[in-house]
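Dear colleagues,

As part of the handover before I leave the project, I'm documenting each prediction I ran so the next person doesn't have to rerun anything. This entry is a single chain, and its sequence is reproduced below.
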Amino acid sequence: MRPTTKDLAKAAGVSLATVDRVLNDRTGVREDTVRRVSEAIEKIGFLRNISAANLARSKSYRFLFLLPRSGDQFLAEVLAKISEANSAFGSEAMRAEVAQIHESDPHQIANFLESLNPDTVDGVAIMAPESPQVRDAKLRLEQRGIETVSFISGQIRAGADLAAEDFIGIDNHAAGATAGRLMGRFLDRKPGKVLVIAETMHARDSLERRLGFDEVIGADYPYLTVLPSLETHGEAERTDRILSATFARNPDIAGVYILSSEARVPLQSVTQLTQAGHRLVIAHERTPFTEAALLSRQIDALITQDPGHLVRSALRILRARCDRREVLASQEKIRIEILFAENL
């Protein structure tokens, strides 16, 4: 039989009411009493039935995904998975809302986070480029009792207490290194230049992917020259202009690496500019557009992460933090997947 709250109260030498106050983090309990209850929990192996406790208190979980306004098809995939998760987790009293904000203004993001009320929001998954303003706003949220996780685009926690579950997403350095390995292997000792395209290099995921990519190419494929990253900012006209100029100056481009999460705009430009001869193209994230491009051989390989797993993992981690429970790290590790036309 699992130990009950009565067993816990007896082991700690306190009343049931005191055990209830300690388990629910209520005020008015002396520090030494909390310590005795905590020691008794360890001693008898007490496991709290969180679901039953929440049902008794009519407890619900109110989470928020703070997402950028731009993002095209990949963002649409994430939004669809949030809606799907709401249906799946509805019976567990979990509900996620979405707020979208201009990701290019860190002050606006920080001000939005400051406006959140712990009476109406229990936790936030934040997808935003890294900045001191957003990092500090996250810390202030946690001090006010609102749990946070970085979602897809990371905000590194200050100090040495960084946990694996502070960031929901793939290891972007490893993802970039994977792209570098594929690029070098597929080009098969063919000298040339490699074009790298990003939406912005202010995002930590883009920086880490570029670092991983460069390390592999530099170490194992010295006959390839990786060009400076081009930033599109998601604008089609700008993308056409800078890519046209780059291809004109570098006719020996042998490969293209699109490292941002949205490949549609740059890939359309690359396709138009390389109709006379195919260049190896590696991109990120599975969307309806990149699926079609993979099947039509406009993309040779796709490095992806499962948006459904991303969303569910964020919700599970936020809930575990609200309940003061340990996270099952193996369940929340987001895998890097490599897709070809043959294994879609």
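The chain has three domains: 5-48, 60-169+307-334, 172-304. The two ends are 48 Å apart (CA to CA).

All the best with the project,
I.
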